[in-house]
Amino acid sequence: MGLEVHLQLATDSKIFSGSPSRFGAEPNVQADAVDLGMPGMLPVLNTRAVEFAVRFGLGVGAKIGRRSVFDRKNYFYPDLPKGYQISQFFEPIVGEGLFEVPMPDGSLFPIRILRAHLEEDAGKSVHDAFPDQTGIDLNRAGTPLLEIVTEPDFRTAEQAVAYLKALHSLVTYLGISDGNMSEGSMRCDVNISLRPVGSDTLGTRTEIKNVNSFRFVEKAIEVETERQADLLDNGETVTQETRLYDADRNETRSMRSKEVANDYRYFPEPDLLPVVLDEATIESIAQSLPELPGPKRARFIEQYTLSDYDAALLVSSRAMADYFESAVADCDEPKLVANWILGDLSAAMNREDLDIDQTPVSASALAGLITRIADNTLSSKLAKQVFEGLWLGEGSADDIIEARGLKQVSDTGELEAMIDDVITNNPDQVAQYQAADEAKQKKLSGFFVGQIMKASKGQANPQLVSQLLMKKLSD
């Protein structure tokens, strides 16, 4: 498999006109005479789009085209007003690169980037606005896209999804796109072909067009692979074509025969000069790049002694990585901070469908909670109650501990008194414990700990209880 990702660039205006490119506007209110292909209208290149393309190329270590050229891609469709799309074909702005994708097992999976080129988006055909009619919305026409094309390096759906998630992380770190798949800011075309086991020759490929979620990409790959395999097993042939994925029916369906480059009659765009980049411009853009996910992941592993898995999850979002480092700066407990972010905090955000920058628990508030865990003011069980209070906006960790009476009991004298009462009131269990072997004693000790925790309303320090209890029962 090879993937083609169409990434909407986060510019304020379109690639060749001054029209805005915001999502969600009423149909046809964000299209000017250039976007509508009116006679005599000339495109003017958006400099910001060029900068964003270079940022991406530098982010994946790709060759940057010192000279790139725009071309006309000719085809006819109702939502393409000019009858052609301005794209890049012969000399793209970004050439070959290598993108290392972190996999769930901690390994890095190298994906060869073939090219990334700038182009304008087409409009949108709307099939459900009018009975028995199709409407045309040209708000998207001229929206700046970066099309990122890989070599056919993928062999499983898991690899493809991991790549898309890593790509999403990279472009949001770079600030060149919000990567919102549900709004069309990141759309994926999947090219699939099969080959017999042991053969190096790939068969006829199909393209699944405009898949707009990680889950749907995985499903589309699975059902299309199965469809092609069934055809070949039955002695039939695979037709080179473009297909769509129907999520409701979990199937792919034919859209049209697959075009090749000659069908589009590419030729250089006569209304735009070549884009020429000097070394100073490229170096200036390079200096402006933030710390990217790969280097940040390596630093988190070394600086904070985190596992590969935890570090990869924390750096998957720039906002989450910043939240983590802010919390660690306040409490100096990186492992505990990672556990709480990836555990209770993430679970709460998932329930409420919130992102890390929308959570009601600030990094400093979480650090306050973790400080009280680290100094034994809170047990892990009590800490969950305090976190609940933080989520509900009941104040700081210290405020909630005080208001709810949740301070962990670590006073030795107070705990010994509780232990003495439990031992006195349960002579049969004490006798069983003292007569048992070591393995059985470990099981029986749970009864006593449970009774003490009950007596303390869950506030006794469990580690200290275990130490004192073992000593008492051994006397």
UniProtKB/TrEMBL annotation:
Role description: Allows the formation of correctly charged Asn-tRNA(Asn) or Gln-tRNA(Gln) through the transamidation of misacylated Asp-tRNA(Asn) or Glu-tRNA(Gln) in organisms which lack either or both of asparaginyl-tRNA or glutaminyl-tRNA synthetases. The reaction takes place in the presence of glutamine and ATP through an activated phospho-Asp-tRNA(Asn) or phospho-Glu-tRNA(Gln).
Protein name in the entry: Aspartyl/glutamyl-tRNA(Asn/Gln) amidotransferase subunit B
EC number(s) on file: 6.3.5.-
Subunit structure: Heterotrimer of A, B and C subunits.
Source organism, top-level taxon: Bacteria
Any one Gene Ontology molecular-function term assigned to this protein's record: ATP binding
Gene symbol of the encoding locus: gatB
SUPFAM superfamilies: GatB/YqeY motif (SSF89095), Glutamine synthetase/guanido kinase (SSF55931)
SMART domains for the chain: GatB_Yqey (SM00845)
Catalytic activity: L-glutamyl-tRNA(Gln) + L-glutamine + ATP + H2O = L-glutaminyl-tRNA(Gln) + L-glutamate + ADP + phosphate + H(+); L-aspartyl-tRNA(Asn) + L-glutamine + ATP + H2O = L-asparaginyl-tRNA(Asn) + L-glutamate + ADP + phosphate + 2 H(+)
